[in-house]
Amino acid sequence: MPRPAELEPIGAAALWVSYFTAYGALVERAGMRPGDRVLITAASGGVGRAAIQIANQIGAVPIAVTRQSAKAESLLVAGAAAVIATDREDIGEAALRHTGGVGADIILDAVMGPGLAELSRAAKLGGTLAAVGWLDPRPASFPANPSLTIHRYMSFADMVDPVTARRVAAFLAAGVRTGVLRPTVDRVFTLDDIVQAHRYLETATPAGKIVVTP
After folding, report:
1. Which terms does the record give in the GO molecular function aspect (predicted)?
2. Residue 123 zone, left/alpha/beta (φ > 0; ψ -120 to 50; rest)
């Protein structure tokens, strides 16, 4: 895919995989539409921030979820309509409060694990959950919302389809061109420092993508 002219190489490196994942899960699988209330877990990461921007591009309402209340302000600045910090509030109750008592139309989840049952309570009846990661390696609990439709999404399966790849690339290029999509780079390492880059990824909670340059 060509690099959007508006992005330097480092910004472009932070675009393709995370934004493809967010778009594919939200639009291709969950069918996100304007006005949908979208709950986004692990919102501080690369996919989470991409999802916030893509939701705004389409006209949906992104509600960011983070474990640390200290990150709330940065997520609001990043475009979230509201932030739920799970270190100080119950995710189900907070989601109902931010959606007028209905629940989220779509949940984009990168965590899974035992918290899935509680997370499912944040969705409306007949809502959709798109799982894009497994940050919590423990077995996932059974969803408490029996009407929830669940999609397990891996972007690499769509990337090998040229029709889908061109459709996603056109959407991302338009978003970059209009300034709605702005890849967030947390830190840049050189290839000589690849070990430190991996250690940073494993021990820190990056606010965006980590990019490695030659």
Report:
1. oxidoreductase activity
2. beta
